[in-house]
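Troubleshooting: if your tokenizer reports a length mismatch, compare against these two reference records.
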Amino acid sequence: MDHNPAAVNPFQLFDVPVVISSQNDSHCFDDDGRLKRTGTLCTASAHIITAVIGSGVLSLAWAVAQLGWIAGPAVMFLFSFVTYYTSSLLTECYRTGDPTSGKRNYTYTDAVLSILGGYEVKACGLIQYLNLFGISIGYTIAASISMMAIKRSNCFHNSGGKNPCHMSSNPYMIMFGVSEILLSQIPDFDQIWWLSIVAAVMSFTYSGIGLGLGIAKVAASETLKGSLTGISIGTVTQAQKIWRSLQAIGNIAFAYSFSVILIEIQDTIKSPPAEAKTMKKATKLSIAITTTFYMLCGSMGYASFGDFAPGNLLTGFGFFNPFWLLDIANAAIIIHLVGAYQVFCQPIFAFVEKWATRRWPESYFIIKEFNIPIPGRRSPYKLNMFRLVWRTGFVMTTTVISMLFPFFNDVVGIIGALGFWPLTVYFPVEMYIQQKKICKWSSRWICLKMLSMACLMVSVVAGAGSVVGAFLTLRFTI
């Protein structure tokens, strides 16, 4: 191995041999010399649900309103099927070669490096980390919207409806950023399992409240709003109808985006049984649960508001009673997004820190850890100055960008469209073909390639719709 730091491939971060002679036989260590993984079906499902039932669920009523009663649920079902199928292919790539004893791939880019290699690993790394970066921006915007909703609700009721309660989202984005700076100091992915469980519970809480309010609104009006083809021409122009429909597809794609961190989640699972077996069960369970919620929330939201379904479902119910229930729902969104932000950002943190360690192995600033005693905890917290500075800078950057571009629906659509095809479909399909040595031009090879090409076209048109939507929103805002 070349020990010249300048020659290190930054994507080959985790292929570091660990020599532990006596400890490898211990019950405390796995086959790769690392501490035994302790993840289970429950914790893996919690990570996935935290990642999937994110702020994307709030835009589904708007998405169904653009597509209508037929295309809206159909597109959601298709995305759930494609996501489950390609995620099952991706789980097979956690180990290179034998599914029980092959070399572990600790991250998504590790899997691409060991199976595909070449320029594809660089493309994958760039797309993955840009996607995660974009998701963190989207979550910051969504959290600030919920904070503002709570503040405006209380202001509205305290003034008896006389004060319009206009306010800026910037202070709330800063508050969210400060909380993430603190939580970002948790060193590793496997140490935030408790945060994922709390976040998953919160996601069910606000989704359930949104669903319940939608059912109550439909029951009160005794009518199901909406049409088979979605928002009507007249309410919007024909061109707007097309662009908004494409943007809606991007929003639905965003709602199912978790493949980007699937390998990282799988790396927390203990074995036996084989990690791929547990991960497939977790994926099936999580996607079944989330799709049920998505269908209910999207459909009931559309039935409640019709063509005027809001971009954020909970904001559509206004500030009327029971306003305290909406406050609870928005508080649950905030707590969930606090955890989801960490789930998506931990892979970026690990990438940069391990690259820096390999690049400057003698740096005191990067390597040195200080033991900070914490009352009530047996082991001290290990403070690393590079981790403190770099992660704080990252959170500050996402916060500032969110303040400059606070358009939730447009950001969601762009992120979903750009990340869906390469990360959810292309790389899993290509790695699976290579891993299983599927013969070129065989029926299975052709079907997998056709699936990839179809999803590419979907991503392209959804991305175009979302970019146009963002441009129009920015123009009218300015």
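Reference record two:
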Amino acid sequence: MASKLNQLRSKAAQASQFVTKHGCAYYKELLENNKKYIVDPPTVEKCQELSKQLFYTRLASIPGRYEAFWKELDGVKHIWRNRKELKVEDAGIAALFGLELYAWFCVGEIVGRGFTFTGYYV
């Protein structure tokens, strides 16, 4: 256990040194590349205004997303009604998609539990 702690400390020290050497240059390059998104002057009032704009823009997009959801649902209903005409390839793709979703949820659960299969730390 102590050797793993020492390894972790050395890796953390290496990461810290890397960030110390390259972090400032990365920060400056990032700001330079995204200069068009920076609002001048950067005041608290401007940040609050932008925050409100984002919130109300998202709020205004709800009806469009709502309509798109119902259009997608109608498409699924249409496919379900005409399932007798469904090709094997389409059914296979749908099955693989469902299997992939299930696998991602299982992997997510395992990762969330700290890579344990039982959920208990031994």
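Descriptive notes for reference record two:
- The helical segments are 2-33, 44-60, 62-81, 88-112.
- The chain has a mean pLDDT of 87.
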